[in-house]
Amino acid sequence: MEDTPTMQSLTSARAAAIGGPGDLRRHGFARYRAEDLGVSLAAHAGDLAQITGAYAQLPPDPYAPTTNRFRRYSHAVYLPWTRELSFIPGAPDATYGSVTEYWQDGHNPEYPDMRRRLPDIPAALQSNALLQHLIHSDIEQALWLEELQRAPLYIGVHLIKLAVSDPAEIAVSSPNCLHQDGGSSATFTFAHLVSCGNISGGENVIATPESAGRQPDDLPPDDLHARFTLNDPLDGYAVHDHRVSHYVGPVQLGDGPGPGERRILIIGMAPYAPRL
């Protein structure tokens, strides 16, 4: 189903209206710019350059090496009452040095109930001042939820690059459909664009939770909350996972010279569940 002018204007208006930190609580999703998160790009130019440089060294997704998707992942623990953030060491790995387990229970239809082991984020990047600021700022946006105030938080940090070098190539995220990230009703996901260039596509879509598993263009207009594209450094969005579904479209090469890349930082959070 193609977008009609009515649908375009509806989703554009919704996207424009969802633009501040309080909207995450009111609507289940929100859009952000750097200034909404208290970030001065000029002050953090060196930190942003270090994060951007890490994307040049991302290995291909070991579970989908032909998708033009590259990634690293690590997790951390955050204590809300002390504001202490500590990254968890990964497991030794002969290929990548260390890896961290990534599990979405049954919410990813491409890898249902699969415990994937992904290459860790470099240790030198974990102390990056901008990365630390973004993690803490994202947590602050979600602490209105009382459940997150009295339990250690599980923090997942994902570097993902979609990269193409030929007009015939397509780079896809996973899963390639509207989805939820799983976990508890206190699960949140934040996405921050690091940079992009010479690409087409990469549209973000927010829809109803019942839309998970479907393609955006197959939905009736009332099920779509917003459609937008991230363009500037640290443009981003957040979702309160169980209240919406979300999606990013495939990326193709743009009209300019050279390869095309979309570099995104994903920060997820949920309370650690007691095991005793």
Can you lay out the helices and strands and say which pair or pack?
Layout: H1 5-17, H2 22-27, E1 29-32, H3 45-55, E2 69-79, E3 84-87, E4 91-93, E5 97-103, E6 115-119, H4 123-126, H5 129-142, E7 153-164, E8 188-197, E9 199-201, E10 204-207, E11 224-228, E12 236-240, E13 245-248, E14 251-253, E15 260-271
Antiparallel strand pairs: 1-12, 2-3, 2-7, 4-5, 5-6, 7-15, 8-12, 8-15, 9-14, 10-11, 10-13
Shape: globular
Proportion of residues in helical segments: 10-25%
Q: What is the CATH superfamily?
A: q2cbj1_9rhob like domain
Number of distinct beta strands: 15
Total domain modules: 1
- End-to-end distance, in Å? 50 Å
Low-confidence residue ranges: 1-18
**Mind telling me which CATH architecture this is?**
Sandwich
Helix/strand structural class: alpha+beta
Percentage beta strand: 25-35%
* Overall mean confidence score, pLDDT: 88
Number of helices: 5
Quaternary state of this entry equals single chain
Pfam families: 2OG-Fe_Oxy_2
InterPro entries: 2OG-Fe_dioxygenase
Organism: Streptomyces zagrosensis
GO molecular function, one term: dioxygenase activity
Task: Please outline what is shown here.
This protein has 276 residues and is α+β, with helices and mostly antiparallel strands. The chain has five helices and 15 strands.
What report would you give on this structure?
The chain is α+β, with helices and mostly antiparallel strands and 276 residues long. The chain has 5 helices and 15 strands. It is globular, with a radius of gyration of 18 Å. Residues 1-18 have low confidence and may be disordered.
